[in-house]
Amino acid sequence: MADVRVFGTRYFRQIAGFWQHGNTTISVFYKWLNEFTLIVAQNWALYPSNSDSDRSGKPAGPALQRDSVEILTPGDYVILGSDGKLCRVGLVNKSHLPRSDSAVNIGTHWDQSEANFVSRVCERDMRCCLTGKEVPHDVQNAHNFVDFKVARIFPLGAKKEFFRFFSRHIKDPDIDEDDKINSVQQGFLVCSAWYHNYTMYKVGVNPDDGYRITDFNHDNGPSSVDGRTFYINPNVPAHYRPCPELLKDHFRRCLLMNVRVLPIFPFAVQDDCDLCDCQL
Fold first, then answer.
1. How far is residue 69's CA from residue 178's CA, in Å, rounded to a whole number?
2. How many CA atoms lie within 13 A of 197 on its CB side?
3. What's the pLDDT at 221?
4. pTM greater than the 0.85 cutoff
């Protein structure tokens, strides 16, 4: 379900859409589109569209300014070139990384490497980085982590891709080179209720937008974390904080899963909407 829809290509097919909670600006949305579209026109813009009544692609208003900090209004939009005609739009043919449930339950560790990973993340954060909820104390004045989990930013099951593309971004001096996937920079503390939202790409953190959190669900209502700022302990050095490159990669995959709209039959509409193999 989406209350913002974007159309493009010669046959006016939907290529993007998301649920606007009221925090995504026009300039940010332009950047989202740049993450998974390849548009032939050198100069293009988003225009309001009356898509339900007019599928010609004729704009219903002036172009949205790329640098606008105004909140994007729910509705339909069309991508047009500078000549006012529909553009051919390519969509990046790259998927999110499927994840198995690698939840790290605090207090239960399989090996020393994982135990160190969990204890370091807990000691650093001491609160849910999405909601801001602090870890409470129990009757013995010890920290109670019952309602918390440690989330891995990059899926543990994709070690090959991690060491190929991302291990160089881990600057943690207290981790061995071959164990960087268990660095404190590779995780954060999260409430159990929000754990699966993050690992299933329904919630993302954008370091390029001030670590703003985006909730791609449409049904979380007042409890949504959309628009909040991801918590980063200001008292720890950068090389112990969650790795921004890993957070960016996760956020890109959220866009691929939740905002990009792939054609149902990609080979049947090859002249209309290209799927392009390229690395994000």
1. 43
2. 22
3. 65
4. yes
